[in-house]
Each structure stands twice: as structure tokens, then as C-alpha cells.
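Example A, followed by Example B.
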Amino acid sequence: MAELKTKIKLYLEDNSKTWDEEKVIIQDDMIKGVSSPYIKTWTYDIAKPDDSKIAEYETAGNAVETNIDIDATRRSQYGTWQDQMEMIYKDQKNGTSTFKDHCDKVRSDNPKV
């Protein structure tokens, strides 16, 4: 399930707005140990989304959050920038495609949704 903040960000983007920590405050009162976040404060000049409007962004929110995880995995698998520069240098020197092949493999092993 996508986080409330992610779904609100998508709602704002659809309405040509950007996230501003001062214009929206999310609160979670944790009732009997169960998380139930809600919009406590809303000062945007567009309508505050109700629960049904927020629910419309569940699928897109899940995709955004999945892609964030995939990006983190890709970054770790690409290696350091020093290693990447070494591959590029050797490719240019030797006429090989090691760096491109490495990047293609990382991307194919970790496709975005």
C-alpha cells in the first residue's frame, strides 16, 4: 500500500502543484498500534482530497515507491563512480563495451514498473 504522502504528491502534481511541508501536514495518531495517517493541515489553494480521491492514486503510488526501491538497487549495482570511470576508460582504450554491457545488465535485472 502506497504511503499517504506519496499519493498526496501525485494528487498535487496532477493539479500543477508541488509538495510543500508548510502547506500540508500529515499526522498519524496510531490508534491501538494501528497506523492511520490523515491530512491534519491543508493550506493549498485547491480542494483538499478526500479519502476516495486519495484512493485513486494507490496504483500510481505503488509504482512510484517500487521505482524508488529499484533505483536504489540499481545505484548499488552500478558500482562507484570511480569503477564506472575505469570501465569507460578501458572501453575507450580497448574498443570494448564493458561499461554499456554492465549498465544494460543492471537495468534488465532491475526493470522499472
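Example B, a separate protein, is given below in the same form.
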Amino acid sequence: MGGRRCVVAAGVVAWVALAGLAVRADVKLPSLVSEGMVLQQGVPVRIWGWADEGEQVTVKIKNQTETTIASQGKWAVTLAPMKAGGPFELAIFGKNKIAFKDVLVGEIWVCSGQSNMQWSLSQSFEAEKHIQNSANPKIHLFSVPRVKSDKPLEDTTGSWQACSPATVKDFTAVGYFFGRDLQKALKVPVGLIHSSWGGSPAEVWVRESVLAANSELKTILDAYPKSFEGYQKALADYEARAAKAKAKEAKQPALRRPSAPWKPAELYNGMIAPLLPYAIKGAIWYQGESNASRAAQYRSLFPTMIQNWRRDWKLGDFTFLEVQLAPFMEIKTEPAESAWAELREAQLLATRLLPNVGMAVITDVGDPKDIHPKKKEPVGARLALAAQGIAYGEKIEYSGPIYKYMQVGPGHIALHFDHVGKGLVAKEGPLKGFAIAGADGRFVWADAAIEGDTVVVSSKDGPRPVAVRYGWADCPVVNLWNKNGLPASPFRTDRAESDMSY
């Protein structure tokens, strides 16, 4: 999967890498601690920066004053939990004074992943309408520049901006719609930190030592040197052919410059590490396309990434919300195997393996011909519902039906679900997308009907059924929902015994 690749000036990267090393006469702050920032309510908040050795640094906000002494060029204080509100003034005193007047206290969410998270509001469906209506001083935005690094960086660049037509048009559309709906529901300030890169696989968002400690995932690290060697050879060949073509001044077939392979951990180092230890409520994640060919590995890789972030932020099992892959590619006329369906299953598995993990299902807003479906508003809306139910404990139905277990009867299988809500419903016509198989494992399209809180699946022509699949395709055509207006997740009941983790 492609994505725009941003080139960052070498000088900026160098400054970031050396941010904590240079000798300073004045107190310095990370980019996140700046005018317009939003601080997480209800938890201790870390404020940190750099100063001369032994320099006394004092931080004041509202009725709090905290003082510390810089050690090895760094300092940090912890503010007591605060209630939502603002704007407040935050002042920091060392040999110099820094003061910010537009500081809010509310809810902080990190928005990360690959190009469907990077996808801007200006590129999305009905963009002009949403941009014109976006002004909201209680939503503040921070965009992390796309930077790769071999080592964890201490800082990034960027600045907080109040949400407005001018600042939101290039911001993540999914993140904006999520934040908009969440702010409306909670009625408190919301800060959104956008840190994504199109085309990125999940392993580049994981700390290297975490990958190395996992025997299954260490193979990713081990494979990189050979991959990079292949890239260097391909690049040398490309440059030789390009030089030859230029020397002959003759028309040559278009030459395509090879792309460097993704290096494990490089975006964790450049785009997640600099955010620590800024207090957050949770994260939303839209990624998986680049790992679809390795869906079995994603079952371990994705939960490992979530646990890595949680450990490094030191905020406990904070809420982590993912977007299940949208339908894409050719619609198949018969049931078949699907790498994308397996990746969706791995995403669903994470919600079972780890606490406080939720998922937005978007089987209704895909595009067979576009890996970047333009309708991002439903995606953000469903993530916001999941946040309300999981992170904030509201008594609402925040998920569509999720397969729970099956009962095999004579000639049929009855499927039971979690998140039935007000009841099951077939949206727009009879149920579709169900396939059934006998002991031979050959799936055929099935008849399906809603009976109470179950779906009964059968086939007039098939043998005694043993397994069911729903939406098991790259581009599923499905319509099982609950009456709360949320679609069911695709699933299969024929997992191997070793896969029966959920």
C-alpha cells in the first residue's frame, strides 16, 4: 500500500536528536509543551524539558506550584490531577520564564497508523462542508512530522493549533471526526495528536527491543539486513541504467526508483518515542493493509505493539481503539480464502486478548476499487462510540454484533452473538454474506435468517453443516447489523484448535 513519504530537513532531525544534549542557558521545552496544548484531565501530568545542570525549575498552573532541579541537563515535574476546563495559564521559571495562556485540560488521544489514518479531511467525502463547519476552540490539533530514526528521539517538531477550517483541512479525517464527536458527547476540551505514515507496516511502530524479545517477531528484525541488501543492489542497478540512458540521450522505458524497505522500529523511534511521557487517555489506530500478507503474524505483532505502547506510556491499560479493514478489491462470486479476511480476524482477536481494546467495523463504507475509501465520517463516529463505552464507561451499545459461539443442529447452525443491542437486523433485504461447509471444508453460499438473538444458517444442497463463515472475503458484501445502527464483524467458526483464543 502506498503513501506519501515526507522528507524532513536534515537540520531538523539533527536538532531533534541532540535536543537533550546541548548546553543551554535557558529552560527549553518539548514541542508538545507549548501554547495551545491540552493536558489530560484526571491523572498526574508530567511536564518536562531541558536546562543547565543544577538549574532550579518551577512550574505553575492554577493553584499548583512544583519545583525541581535539573540533572544531567533534564528536568521534570508531576502535576496533580486536574479537572477539565480552561484556558489556563501555565508558567515555567528557570533562568528564563516561559508562559502559555491558552492551556486547556480535557481528553488527549493519539491518532496513528498508515494512509487511511493519514488521509486528510480535504481528501474526504463532502470535504468542503465539513471543513467549513470545523471551527471549535475546544478541539486542539497537533501533527507529528513524519520522521524515521534508528534511535528513539527525545523531541519532535510541530505546534498545537485550535481546530478551524485553516488548520483542519490537512489533518487526519478519521481523527477529526472522532474528536469532533467525542468533544460533542463529553463537552470537555479534546486534544488530538496525529502521528501516522502511509504504507507503514505495524512492526515499524514497535520498539526494537520488544521485537527482539519475542521469538516469533524477532524474525522481522533478522530479515531486514537481507531486505536492505537487496534494496541496495536494486538501487545500484537503477542508477546504472538511468546513467546509461542519460548518456545515450535516447528514449528509454520509464525507470522506477526502488523504494527502501521499512526498517523495524524506525517510526516508533521517530514518531512515538518523542511523545513520551505526555499523558493521554488513549489511542485510535487505522492500519493493517500493509500486513495483510502476514495476517497470522499480525495476531502476535498487533497485541505486542499495543502492550509496548502501554508499558512505555506508564498509564496502565489505556484504551486502544482500532479500525477493522474496509472492503477492497474484487467482489468474488463464490466463497474463497482471503488474506484480508484473516487480517480482520487478527484485529478482532486483539479485542479478546487484551483489556480495553475496541474496534470499529466498516464493512459498509469500503470501495472495491479504492484502498482509501473516502467516507471517513462513519469511521470516526464509530470510534467515538467505542471510546464512550470503553474509555468513559457510558452505558451505550458501542459495537455491532460479534460472533460468540455456535450450536449445530440437524441441517443448520445457530449462531450466537455479543453486542446484539436492541436486536439483530438485516439491513436492506434478506441476510447475505453467509457461507456454510460440511466435513469436507468446502464452503458454499448459505441461507440465513434471524431468529430472536441468533442467526440460523443452512443450505438445502449441502451435507451436514459443521462450520460457517460470514463476510470472509477481501471485499465482503454483508448486511447483518444490530438495531443500534452498527454492522457485525466478519468471522469464521472453522479455526484450528490452536487458534481458539477467542
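On Example B: The domain at 10-104 is CATH 2.60.40.10 (Immunoglobulin-like).
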